[in-house]
Write a structure and sequence with these properties.
By secondary structure, the chain is an alpha/beta fold. The chain has one domain: Rossmann fold. Helices cover 24% and strands 32% of the residues. Strands 4-3-2-5-6-7 form a six-stranded mixed sheet, sandwiched between helices. A three-stranded antiparallel sheet has the order 1-9-8. The two termini are 23 Å apart. Bound molecules: guanosine-5'-monophosphate and magnesium ion (MG). The site of magnesium ion has 5 residues, from strand 5.
């Protein structure tokens, strides 16, 4: 029986084992495409668990990622808003002249990742690619696709593996759908 109590309203969408296998496959693809050293930019907060697993998988597969963090917030997420993205906490590293991989949890409207990519280009990153754990293709408002995607999903609201609902559930080791809230 699961040690995680009171989660009866959560249905598993991707198990720990499924995620781990997929993260390893993504890391192999990235290592094959990137120079040995590059800068991974992690968009907080939702992608920190994914990023932690991915950078270790990169290292295991022969890559060597340096890491920095940026906190972005998007007001009125999803489809029914202006979706203005703002920087809550900026990078420490200078991206200029460096190959960059931007990591985020979910590609939905596309506004967050489009904003991040534009920012890296303005700061003269040598190259910019994106890696998203999840992609909800039906929800796009901006014309952008990720270079690497973990899983494509239908437009469910998902939690776990770093993803929250009101800052809860981030520590769940699997990705789940909330069935009755
Ligand atoms: P967008 O692509 O719309 O700019 O932003 C996607 C962001 O919305 C994600 O980074 C994430 O923070 C949030 N988001 C979108 N869908 C979900 C979801 O199903 N669950 C959670 N927890 N956050 C989501
Ligand atoms: Mg986010």
């Amino acid at each position: 029986m699961s040690k995680i109590k009171n989660k009866t309203s959560l249905k598993t969408l991707f198990s720990e084992a499924q995620i781990s296998k997929r993260v390893d496959a993504l890391a192999r693809e990235i290592v094959a495409d990137y120079p040995k050293e590059f800068l991974v930019i992690v968009i907080l907060k939702g992608s920190f668990v994914f990023a932690a697993d991915l950078i270790r998988a990169l290292e295991t597969n022969g890559g060597s990622a340096q890491v920095d963090f940026i906190s972005l917030s998007s007001y009125g997420l999803g489809s029914n808003s202006s979706g203005k993205v703002t920087v809550k906490q900026d990078l420490i590293e200078d991206v200029s002249g460096r190959p960059v991989l931007v990591i985020d949890d979910i590609l939905e409207s596309g506004r967050t990742i489009a904003f991040a990519v534009e920012m890296m280009k303005k700061r003269h990153a040598a190259t910019v690619k994106t890696c998203l754990l999840l992609d909800k293709p039906g929800r796009r408002k901006v014309d952008i696709e990720a270079d690497y995607v973990g899983f494509k999903i239908d437009p469910y609201f998902v939690v776990g593996y770093g993803l929250d609902l009101a800052n809860k559930y981030r520590g769940l080791p699997y990705i789940g759908i909330i069935e009755d809230i």
